[in-house]
Amino acid sequence: MNKRVLIAVLNWGLGHASRSVPIIDAVVRYGADVVIASNGATKTFLEQRFQHINVLEIPDKEINYGKSGAAVGLLKRSFQQQKINNEQYAWLTRNAEDLGITHIISDNLYGVNNPVIPSAIITHQIGIVSPFFKSQFDKHLAVWLKKFDEVWIPDEPGELSLAGKMLDNKFFDGKTFYLGHISRFRKLPGIEKDIDHLVILSGPEPQRTFLERKIAKKLEKLPGRHIIVRGRIDSDVVPPSTKIEYHSFLHEKQLELFIARAKMVICRSGYTSILDMVRMDANACFIPTPQQPEQKYLAKRMKEKGWFHAVTQKDFGMNDLKKADEKSNFQSPDFHERMEKVIYDFLNK
């Protein structure tokens, strides 16, 4: 029987979408038929990236942050999560047989599993980073993760772990596999660094816009070449400027080349952004979304380890833009062999 794999991807910024690219590519290389499921901007991104693959709409709720930060939006999401899981499980139950699904790979969609279909979930968060109710959240998360046959972690074990304590959960004892530091990008050594600052924006509104305005105001005062990629796959409108080159959205190869050419990349400390900067050996400055515990923890970890520069959105200033000569000292092994073995073994179950 031919393998037919459902790959479901969370719509939360474009990080989950972009890190799913090497997974989807590998599954296709192994000869399986693929069906993708997502919604919102992530669905649009995946439809454009994989035009030969059917991309379905899956039930989910839009994630929004408040003007002061992410706390209210994240708390609201936590109360909705079980209902969302149930809706996604029901959607899959209704459609799995008609779609002919033989395997399920879910990127952080906890409800996309089935007791009679082999399933794996991709996540860098086994335990919750939260200033409140951590034990309760960890218990719920462990229950959701155990519904999958395998948990795939886009990280390296041991000292090279990017996620750190986010992989700790005393309530979880399921089967885990490390994929390595996966990324859709290729290393491009020997490229001339002719972009002074490359800003890559992402994540829910209104915080995306707040950060864009703050960085742009400072870049306008500096000489050199500055590029802002707005992360707006839904809009071609860009602000007028004689000092900054704006792009609403860049496709993979062009963004890859810009990162390779940048003396400094400025972006959120989302986990996929960190994976991409590691892959590209980039000199990066990470700015966590206000009140987003995961991003705050990751930014702090990158800075304390001496791997990358990081600063809060409130404290970000001109001095942070002048750290282009401070090269990251993080060296990561190539992920392809580790990732492809995990996928190959899973597809042969």
Could you explain how this protein is built, in words?
The chain has about 350 residues and is an alpha/beta fold. Helix content is about 35%, strand content about 15%. It has 2 domains: about 5-180 and about 335-345, Glycogen Phosphorylase B (Rossmann fold), CATH 3.40.50; about 195-320, Glycogen Phosphorylase B (Rossmann fold, 3-Layer(aba) Sandwich), CATH 3.40.50.2000. The longest helix is centred in the N-terminal third of the chain and has 29 residues, at about 70-100.
Which key features would you list for this structure?
349 residues; alpha/beta; Rossmann fold; 2 domains; seven-stranded parallel β-sheet; 10 helices; 36% helix; hexosyltransferase activity
List the helices and strands and how they pair.
Layout: E1 4-9, H1 15-29, E2 33-38, H2 40-49, E3 54-57, H3 71-99, E4 103-107, E5 119-122, H4 134-145, E6 150-153, E7 176-178, E8 197-200, H5 207-219, E9 226-229, E10 244-247, H6 252-261, E11 265-267, H7 271-279, E12 284-286, H8 293-304, E13 309-310, H9 318-321, H10 336-347
Parallel strand pairs: 1-2, 1-4, 2-3, 4-5, 5-6, 6-7, 8-9, 8-11, 9-10, 11-12, 12-13
Helix pairs in contact: 1-2
Residue ranges: pLDDT <50 for 5 or more in a row?
none
Helix count? 10
Kindly report the spatial arrangement of strands forming the biggest sheet.
3-2-1-4-5-6-7
CATH superfamily heading of the largest domain: Glycogen Phosphorylase B
* CA(first)-CA(last) distance: 12 Å
Reported by name, the CATH topology of the largest domain is Rossmann fold
* Helix/strand structural class: alpha/beta
The CATH class of the largest domain: Alpha Beta
Report the strand count: 13
**Topology pattern, helix = H, strand = E:** EHEHEHEEHEEEHEEHEHEHEHH
Organism: Cryomorpha ignava
Protein name: Glycosyl transferase family 28 C-terminal domain-containing protein
Domain Glycosyl transferase family 28 C-terminal: 242-341
GO molecular function: hexosyltransferase activity
